Amino acid sequence: MHELSIATAIVEQAGEIARADGAGDVSLVTVRVGELAGVVPDALHFAFEVARDGTPLAAAELVVEQVTARAWCGACAREFAVGMPPFFWCPDCDRPSRDLRSGRELEITGVEAVPAPR
């Protein structure tokens, strides 16, 4: 389950972001996960609960925003969803696309933290 290593990295990076901002405990972490990133959101939630234990994120909530995989067809000049399993052929002109526009994301987009005590 590689989601545990991903969750551990999220906990570490979110903690660093909070410390750099002078904040205390983290209450919420938002991540964007692409449909083709190879991450199972339910497994990531479970792994996050394990990885956050004993850290400044111990009570933090994880919000996973899923990103649909989309490709661009140059011939039609349009974007289309590739689906799962991915199918990179344009549904309009039946030509293959090599231009993946979204779907591989795995990024922290937000960290909310409680202000540090003074």
From TrEMBL:
One of its GO terms (molecular function) is nickel cation binding. Ni(2+) binds at residue 2. Pfam families: HypA. Zn(2+) binds at residues 73, 76, 90, 93. InterPro entries: Hydgase_Ni_incorp_HypA/HybF_CS (IPR020538), HypA/HybF (IPR000688). PROSITE patterns: HYPA. Keywords: Metal-binding, Nickel, Zinc. It comes from the Bacteria. GO terms for biological process: protein maturation. Transmembrane segments: none annotated. Involved in the maturation of [NiFe] hydrogenases. Required for nickel insertion into the metal center of the hydrogenase. Belongs to the HypA/HybF family. This is Hydrogenase maturation factor HypA. It comes from Streptomyces collinus (strain DSM 40733 / Tue 365). The lineage of its organism: Bacteria, Bacillati, Actinomycetota, Actinomycetes, Kitasatosporales. The gene is hypA.
